[in-house]
Amino acid sequence: MKKRLTIALVAHDRRKVDMVEWAVFNALFLAKHHLVCTGTTGKLIQDAYREKGLTASITRMNSGPLGGDAEIAAMVVRKEVDLAVFLIDDLNAQPHEADIMMLLRQCRIHNIPIACNRYSADLMITSPLWDEESYKPSIPQYIEFRRES
Question: Is residue 69 flagged as an active site residue?
């Protein structure tokens, strides 16, 4: 990959083990890019990398419930994130559900790829489109559609 990406990594508590395993498995790829993580997720990834002698550029935001999801959503709006991986705990309610929905919505509105499971994250980071200089993602169009009767 020619371009240095900013990749947001977010994981709910019951998905943090999964995120750390994914980040370690993909450490060679991730080390070439800048990672922005919510607080606890970022610390766990830093610790796992340190334990394995790996390095990466990691910026830690606040913990998700303390505004980390909202901080990353703001980065998305400012076009400071190229890709997001958000491992969501779909089996349990989250006290900061509004922030979670805001982050997902801003990624969709601003056309930022967001993976919500490891498989889609793997597919996204291995896409050859990252290296295609001629590839420019289209801008989402929100045009009223009138269905003919």
Answer: yes
Looking at the structure of the chain, the number of domains it has is: 1
Residue of 13, 47, 69, 82 with catalytic role = 69
CA–CA distances in Å: residue 35 to residues 4, 8, 84, 144: 10, 6, 10, 37
Residue 83's CATH number: 3.40.50.1380
- pTM over 0.90, yes/no: yes
Does 1 fall in a domain?
Answer: no
* Per-residue tens of pLDDT for the chain, all 149 residues: 668 999 999 999 999 999 999 999 999 999 999 999 999 999 999 999 999 999 999 999 999 889 999 999 999 999 999 999 999 988 988 888 888 999 999 999 999 999 999 999 999 999 999 988 888 888 888 888 888 87
DSSP 72-133: HHHHHHTT--SEEEEE--TTS--TTHHHHHHHHHHHHHTT--EESSHHHHHHHHT-GGGG-T
Domain of residue 61 covers 6-131
